[in-house]
Amino acid sequence: MGKNTKRDTFSGYEFTEIKKTNPVARVITYIFLIIWALVNLFPIYFMFTFSLKANDEIFGENIIGLPRNWLWSNFSSAMNTGNMGLYFVNSLLVTTASIAISIFAALMATYALTRIKWRGSRLMNSFLMLGLTIPIQASIVPVYVILSKAHWLNHYTTLIIPYSAFTLSMSILISTGFMVDIPYDLDESARIDGCGLWKTFFAIILPLMKPALSTIGIYAYLQCWNEFMFANVFISDSAHRTLPVGIKALSGAYTTDWGPIGAALVIATFPTLLIYIFLSSKIQESFIAGAVKG
Predict the structure, then answer these.
(1) Whether residue 1 has pLDDT greater than 60
(2) In angstroms, rounded to a whole number, what is the distance separating the alpha carbons of residues 272 and 247?
(3) How much is the average pLDDT of 190-194?
(4) How many whole angstroms separate alpha carbon 65 and alpha carbon 46?
(5) Helix, strand and coil percent figures for the chain, each rounded to 5
(6) What would the pLDDT profile of 138-150 be if each residue is shown by its tens digit?
(7) Any residues with CB less than 8 A from the CB of 79 and at least 6 apart, and which?
(8) 187 with 204: CB under 8 angstroms?
């Protein structure tokens, strides 16, 4: 058994060396990677060129080519006529508040469930994990009724509270994977030094949870920024619309100018791409750390 394992390991090493030294294998690998990169970059290219064209180019004359006339006015139409600037600010506000609440609530709940000994902690943890099994579509009617009776429709809190609630279960699950690996001796040492629960949490535990903050923030951002169903049902006035609902509102009943819609899609999508480009290393480190700890 040991000989076979050694032979397999050696064979794998030999194959790796052949791939590194064989020019044909290297060329094939690079060609495959270039094709894969083009396949993934094409939707971004198409969306950007789509946002700078008129309807006659979009439908038939110049579908995938560069625009013949670069209509940068589509962006001004989307920002002014379509109110994309207001919707962008609304999405940014709702998403930022939801991320902050999700991180703060998840970390404090995880600290109470994993670091404090009290009767019913396991039952409470199981109850909170039930949120992972509830689809967002099944909750839209009861959530709407609750918000309506509480007179919370057509406000920023109309979306902030449900978004924070529906990301809480996964956020607790993520932070639990990190917090259980922190030695409990740190809590005991802090208590010996006179630290209470709050100071232990903020001074000892919270600085060690930075990878978890990144992971929870990324997850909450993806859940909130592109969410459409709640935003479409719970918000009826244009003053509090978010980007997904605002983009839908750009399409007319009979005729539609698709260039500004493409510009609105760029406005909604490119911030996420820019965040990933500038924070890609942090994002990858946080997910790798979460995978290892989980």
Answers:
(1) no
(2) 16
(3) 85
(4) 9
(5) 80, 0, 20
(6) 889 999 999 999 8
(7) 85, 267
(8) yes
Token readout for 135 is 């689809």
Distance of CA 200 to the CA centre of its chain: 30
Find out whether 107 and 175 touch, Cβ atoms under 8 Å: yes
All structural domains of the chain, each given as residue ranges with its CATH number in brackets, are 79-242+271-293 (1.10.3720.10)
d(Cα 283, Cα 288) in Å, to the nearest integer?
9
Helices (H) and strands (E) in the chain, counts: 15, 0
Lookup result for tokens 């940068």:
72
Residue 132 Ramachandran class (φ > 0 left, ψ -120 to 50 alpha, else beta): alpha
- Give the pLDDT confidence of 196-246 residue by residue, as tens digits: 888 888 888 888 888 788 888 888 888 899 889 999 999 988 889 999 888
Distance CA 169, CA 174 (A): 9
Candidates 156, 145, 174, 291; CA nearest to 224 is 156
Question: What are the angstrom distances between the C-alpha of 182 and each of 104, 156, 187?
Answer: 18, 36, 9
Helices 121-129 & 84-114 angle (0-180, nearest 10): 150
- Residue written as tokens 């969410």? 227
Q: Whole-model pTM? A: 0.77
> Minimal CA–CA distance to 273: which of 225, 220, 241, 228?
225
Q: C-alpha distances in angstroms, 220 versus 167, 242, 245?
A: 6, 16, 19
Instruction: State the greatest distance between any 2 C-alpha atoms of the chain, in Å, as a whole number.
Output: 76
Q: Are 274 and 106 in contact (CB under 8 A)?
A: no
The radius of gyration computed from the CA coordinates of the chain, to the nearest angstrom, equals 25
